[in-house]
Write a structure and sequence with these properties.
Blueprint lengths: L3 E3 L4 H9 L4 E3 L14 H12 L1
Parallel strand pairs: 1-2
Length: 53
């Protein structure tokens, strides 16, 4: 298994990693990110990442 796992189907990230020849796997998240908010943008990102596993 590659060291990098994307929990996103972002075409831009995929193309960038392919261009840089960085091995990765994609495991799309079913998490509804727009419904997950915390007290600050930084805490929101941390919480979303934690919930994605």
């Amino acid at each position: 298994m590659p060291d990098l796992v994307l929990a996103s189907q972002s075409l831009g990230r995929k193309k960038l990693l392919q261009y840089l020849k960085i091995p990765f796997e994609i495991f799309p998240s079913t998490l509804k990110e727009e419904k997950i908010n915390a007290s600050t943008p930084e805490k929101t990102l941390q919480l979303r990442a934690k919930l994605k596993g």
